[in-house]
Specification:
Blueprint: H1 2-39, H2 54-68, E1 82-89, H3 93-113, E2 120-125, E3 128-131, H4 134-145, E4 151-156, E5 165-170, E6 179-185, H5 191-208, E7 211-219, H6 227-231, E8 252-256, H7 257-262, H8 266-275, E9 279-284, E10 291-295, H9 305-315, H10 368-379
Amino acid sequence: MRRVVTMVRVVAWRWSDLSVRFFRHWVATSANLLVNANVNGTMEAALRINEIDGVAFERQERNARRADKGLPPVPELERDPWLQVQWNTFSAPASLAAEFPELCDAVGHAFAAAGQPMPATSVTFRGRDVRWSPKALAKVVEAWASGDLDRVTVDFSTPEMDRQAEISVLVAPGVGEATVFQVTVWTAPDVGAVAEQLLPVVSDQALLSDTVYGAITYDFGESFRLPFEMWYGVGGDGWQAAHLFTRGYYWANLLSHRHLLALGGLVEARRRTVEAGMLFVPLREEPGRELAWIRMPGRADEVSDEQLAAIKRLLSPTWAPVRHRYYTGYPLRVLKDPGDAYLLPPVGTKLPHFDSDNKADPDDPLTEPLEAWYREVKSRPELWTWRAE
C-alpha cells in the first residue's frame, strides 16, 4: 500500500512539473509565432498596447506640454537609480524577530566597510516613527514575535542628508507565508562597494532562515517590487511564489532548490553559469535545500547590456510565464522581448482603450491620426520589424 501511495505521489509531482513546462512552452511558442508572422510581413491590423514604448511616449507627451509653456525638455534620466536588495523567507516570525537586531547591526557595518558610515536614526512600526534606540528596537522585536506587527522600517542617515538608506520588512501574518526584506540605498558615493558589502549580509541571513530567493540590483524599483515585476506587470505580491519562480534577472540572484532544478540541478546550474560568463557561489549544497548565488562579475553599477542579456538567457527557465503590457515609469534595466515596446506614436496621439488581449478595443476605435500613422507603419516593414535587445 505504501508503495502505491509513493507511486501516486511521484506521478502527481511529475504531472505538475510537466504542466508547468507545457504552459511555459505554449507561451514561448505563441510569442514566437506572433514574432515570425510579423517579421514575414503579415502584421495584424489591431494595434497592441504592448507594442507601444510607454516610457518614450509618456516622455514625448510631457515634453510637448512643456514646450507649449516655454519650458526645456526633461532629460531621459531625471535621477540616478538606487541600490535595491531583497530576499524572501518562509521562516517563523518569532525567529526572524530574534535575528532582526543582528541584521540592523550587519547592515550598518556594511555601510561603514564600504566607506559610507550611516547610523540607524529612526524606526517606524505600528504607524509611529520614533528615534532609534535599543529600547525602540526591543519593542519592535516584541511586537514582531507576538504577531502584532505587519511592517517595520529602519532609516539610516548621515549629518549631511536625512534618510539615505533603509531596511524595510513586510512581515508575514503567520507561519507558512513569506516575509520580505528589502534594503534600499538611495545615495552612496560608491554604490558598487556597498553592493559587495551587502551581499554577504544577505548570505548570512539566508543561511540563518528558510530564505528561498534574493536579488541585488542597481535600478529603479518600488517597495517590495523588483524591476522585472514592474515591466511585466506582476502584482505587488510576487514574492509569495518566490519559492517556485525567480523574480527576474539582476546583478546578483540568490536561487533555491526549485530554481536550481529548473536549471538542471546544482551541478548543471554551475556549468551553465560558468558557460554564460557569470559567477556561481554555492551557499548550501544539502539535497532539497540547495542555495546559491548566480551573479555577474564586476560592479553592480557597471552592468553592461551584454551581461544583462547573458544572465537573462541563463535564468529564463526559472521565471513564471509573464507577458509585457504597458509600462510608463522610469527607464528600467530590463531587456525588451521581440514585439514589445518598439513603437512611438506621433505627438498628441490619444491612445484608445485596449482589451484583455492587449488589442485596441473595437468599441473604442483608433483616432484618425493614430490610424493613419499605424496604416503607414504597416505598409513599411522597416518601421516595425525589430530585434531583441
